């Protein structure tokens, strides 16, 4: 098996090593693990691609490359420049911080998985929720490291994976903010919404008198609706959410059709 690894935290991020270890275990002794990751952190860039300017790619080691682009750029770089053949699986992560609820819409980790799915490949995004339960651990990625391989294997073996659809499914996996032994199980969940966690812009003045804006995130410890990803993560469960790149509000399509008929 050939597996491609990428992330949005950058080529030197500790979570990338966890993803590489998971991939190595799944690929097996005769498999290949390739890493093409951003040269520097690209958190929050979503599904952005460098459409209007070129970027440099540098080989760091055998099957290991750093690209001065977004996570989606890294997938395109791997598929159309670096890898000798298409991979059997793309793993994006393990992200430092959750990509549950509205975070999924901004996430470069999910942007890479989405691009892989658009290219017709099975893709899984892995993210580690942070909180008081991870604060004093030797590794904040303990839950992801202990449970990631089993979850990825189960998704690979049992799917479901789309065949013959334009927008193929990819999976968003979030590990709870607890140690490995405190994980209570795995639940399939819809994407949630934290009503107080929207992003904002905060102005600051530099020593030179110029004004700059910092983008500011909201609190991450507020549950979403019952049964949704954030609520289950905060209760100690790994959430697995099947996603597609199709943004159509299908429940409003019929009524919209009536308006213009």
UniProtKB/TrEMBL annotation:
Pfam families in UniProt: SurE (PF01975)
EC nos: 3.1.3.5
Cofactor(s) the protein requires to work: a divalent metal cation
Subcellular location: Cytoplasm
Record bears the keyword Nucleotide-binding: yes
Enzyme kind, highest EC tier: hydrolase
Every Survival protein SurE-like phosphatase/nucleotidase domain range: 3-195
Lineage top rank: taxon: Bacteria
Cofactor note: Binds 1 divalent metal cation per subunit.
Keywords: Cytoplasm, Hydrolase, Metal-binding, Nucleotide-binding
Reaction equations catalysed: a ribonucleoside 5'-phosphate + H2O = a ribonucleoside + phosphate
Keyword Hydrolase among record annotations: yes
SUPFAM superfamilies cross-referenced by the UniProt entry: SurE-like (SSF64167)
One annotated GO molecular function: 3'-nucleotidase activity
InterPro entries in the cross-refs: SurE, SurE-like_Pase/nucleotidase, SurE-like_sf
HAMAP family listed in its UniProt record: SurE (MF_00060)
Entry function: Nucleotidase that shows phosphatase activity on nucleoside 5'-monophosphates.
Protein name: 5'-nucleotidase SurE
Species per Swiss-Prot/TrEMBL record: Aliiroseovarius salicola
Gene designation: surE
